[in-house]
Design a protein that fits this description.
Length: about 280
Amino acid sequence: MTMLQALIAGVIQGLTEFLPISSSGHLVIFNQLLGESGGGDLAFTVFLHLATLLAVVICFWKDIWTLIRTFFAALWDLLRGKPNFKTPERRFLLMVVIATIPAVAAGLLIKLLDLDSVLENIFVVAAMLILTAAFMFLVDRLKGAYDETDAPYRVSLLTGCLQAVAILPGLSRSGSTIFGGVLGGFKKEFAVKFAFILSIPAILGAAVLEGYDVIKTGGIEINFLNWAAGFVAAAVCGVLAIKFIKVLIRNNKFWVFGIYCLLASVFAFLVGFHVIHV
């Protein structure tokens, strides 16, 4: 892998991980287009996931630090037999836990039933991109009033279920969770914050699973300079993507992603039917 390839991979990972256009869907499309069956250097992919995790930490470090302190305080109260989740911080922590459970269950189910082939089907990608586009058009039309002080826990469960379904390639994880939050009544700014903080266990989970596959295959070759370039590119582009989403959600401009996903869906169908090929 050259430095240019590492930089391009980092830029793509940083942007598509957070922009609601489905990073996994794009990976399937380009693998099909290039006649490849895998996702390239798996170890490097895991490394880039850690870079996008850093991007979330940079953008939401105050909220994340509050959640960490709240976790240990709540755990101490539980051990003393005095559970308390009435404060906004503890409600938010519990909401994140509730929303994470469906994605964990879905990931385990995929592995147990060996459904990985579904995750590499380009026609699934094309169909799910259409669904992602519909979500993006609807986000602009919906309004909410809840935040961590009063949001019903059922909304976090709804958001978590949509994140679980977003394991399907082409269905954007960030787009689905933002849509789920707004659909359930979250304020749009809070829906964005919740979606990206919810991405932390999702990204960590993906890194762990892929890291396990790397360990099984063995033979990791590391070019420190190239890997560092890709890591920085992914982290910087991840931060920019998150800030861009914040701007668009405030101005009801998510329809931009809807149009992009529709065009990407058409492209995926054309690649799938071999109308477009390399």
